[in-house]
């Protein structure tokens, strides 16, 4: 009788510790995304549970991978840290037949992602693309097409995974996600330029620089009276805007329950609007400031279904 009670108590303790561990891992993912990906964090909060939890796990994984590439300035220094995340993705999909199926690293983000992979049958190739897209820490694009391909891998892949979290595998949804990912990837690049003053170059496609007779040094200086820099910025912002408009048109064909995944349209639209009002000067205070109204606007736009 005593043995039975002892087993029951031990089992209960194990369940309690597991629940506590799960809650801790969720909090780590939430804090990570809130600290490093604020606008997408606000959009993700407006998703419903249990999908919200898995979406935060996916975005936290993306943040971890992106942090590695941001810390590496050149060369192959970043290969080993990225190799860890590449091996982690392989481990997440290892089945019993492969042996050592339970050897998932004891890392809160990886634990949460592992749960999401099993629960939603997430596609391995999208997680792999998030890692391989950052394999080259120095982004050098010759053409706009190369930049769009990078954004497709590094940003749209997250949206594809969020669609799978919602149980949606639909070509129309994927098409909308592809265009939104490209728009967001280009906007992310534009927003990063003012913070790259220590670098001798910025990741602007060479074909745009050559078309407007602008060199890398002028882009780094980013003087408000430099019309050439303004034209380059306008050209790149226009590419992002076209992808945004295409995505918004396609969202009308997307099933209503998954439309909140496309809320980043709102933050991209608002950034491009501020940039236009500032005459495409990237370091203008109105462009670089935090969008304090964004949480309210996101909530209102979700209620109205207007993305």
TrEMBL record:
SUPFAM superfamilies hit by this protein: Terpenoid synthases (SSF48576)
Domain of life: Eukaryota
Annotated Pfam families: SQS_PSY (PF00494)
InterPro entries per the UniProt record, alphabetical: Isoprenoid_synthase_dom_sf, Squ/phyt_synthse
Protein name per Swiss-Prot or TrEMBL: NADH dehydrogenase (Ubiquinone) complex I, assembly factor 6
Species for this entry: Anopheles melas
């Amino acid at each position: 009788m005593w043995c039975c009670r002892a087993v029951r108590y031990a089992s209960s303790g194990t369940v309690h510790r597991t629940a506590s561990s799960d809650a801790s891992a969720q909090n780590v993912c939430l804090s990570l995304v809130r600290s490093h990906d604020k606008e997408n964090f606000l959009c993700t909060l407006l998703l419903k549970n249990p999908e919200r939890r898995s979406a935060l796990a996916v975005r936290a994984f993306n943040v971890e991978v992106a942090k590695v590439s941001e810390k590496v300035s050149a060369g192959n220094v970043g290969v080993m840290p990225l190799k860890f995340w590449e091996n982690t993705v392989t481990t997440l999909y290892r089945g019993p037949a492969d042996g050592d199926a339970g050897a998932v690293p004891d890392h809160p983000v990886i634990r949460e992602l592992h749960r999401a992979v099993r629960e939603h049958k997430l596609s391995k190739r999208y997680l792999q693309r998030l890692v391989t897209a950052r394999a080259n820490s120095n982004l050098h694009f010759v053409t706009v097409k190369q930049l769009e391909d990078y954004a497709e891998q590094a940003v749209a892949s997250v949206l594809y995974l969020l669609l799978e979290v919602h149980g949606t595998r639909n070509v129309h949804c994927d098409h909308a996600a592809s265009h939104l990912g490209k728009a967001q990837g280009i906007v992310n690049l534009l927003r990063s330029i003012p913070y790259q003053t220590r670098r001798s170059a910025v990741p602007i496609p060479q074909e745009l620089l050559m078309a407007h007779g602008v060199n890398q040094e002028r882009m780094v200086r980013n003087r408000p009276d430099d019309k050439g820099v303004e034209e380059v910025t306008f050209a790149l912002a226009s590419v992002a805007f076209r992808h945004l408009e295409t995505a918004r048109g396609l969202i009308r064909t997307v099933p209503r329950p998954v439309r909140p995944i496309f809320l980043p349209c709102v933050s991209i639209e608002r950034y491009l609007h501020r940039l236009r009002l500032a005459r495409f000067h990237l370091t203008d205070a109105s462009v670089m400031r935090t969008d304090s109204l964004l949480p309210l606007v996101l909530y209102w736009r979700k209620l109205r279904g207007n993305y």
